[in-house]
Design goal:
Helices cover 53% and strands 7% of the residues. With 154 residues, it is an alpha+beta fold. It has a four-stranded mixed β-sheet, with no helix packed on it. A hairpin with a 5-residue loop joins β1 and β2.
Length: 154
């Protein structure tokens, strides 16, 4: 069912490779015909009837393939927008994962760039982690840890 839908909705996805293949065959036929002729005036018919249209079909196939893929991507995005979005979880669903850290004590690692909660997995069990206060945090120019999300108002 999915492939049948793709063929009907996005014909450029199938016409592009077909045009590329036909163009490549025409270029090969034109080259083969031209290679057997010694004089330029006998090579021109092959150039005009096979090689130039073959090159045009290769360009058209590339354009169709690019357009088909962008159309396919756009249709997928539209289908995503159609999905229902809920602000509140449905009744009976489990709560989202609890925060990784919830301690009120703040720590920092000397020489580091972040400050953390005491039970943050990044500093938990590290003996070099020292308590941090607002003065030390601003003096060292530390940023809050994105994993444990300590309160920024300290």
């Amino acid at each position: 069912m999915r492939t049948a839908r793709l063929r009907s909705v996005h014909p450029a996805l199938w016409a592009g490779p077909a045009a590329l293949a036909v163009g490549a065959v025409l270029c090969v036929v034109g080259w083969y015909g031209m290679s057997g002729e010694r004089f330029a005036e006998r090579q021109l018919p092959y150039l005009a009837s096979c090689t130039v249209p073959g090159a045009a079909l290769i360009i058209a196939g590339a354009v169709l393939l690019t357009h088909g893929r962008s159309t396919l991507a756009a249709s997928r995005v539209e289908r995503l927008y159609e999905l229902p979005a809920t602000a509140d979880p449905a009744p009976g669903t489990p709560d989202p994962a609890p925060p990784l850290a919830s301690s009120g004590r703040l720590l920092m690692v000397p020489g580091g760039t972040l400050w953390h909660r005491a039970d943050c997995p990044l500093v938990e069990g590290k003996p070099q982690a020292v308590p941090a206060d607002a003065g030390a945090i601003t003096e060292a120019g530390l940023d809050p840890c994105p994993i444990c999300e300590p309160p920024t108002g300290s």
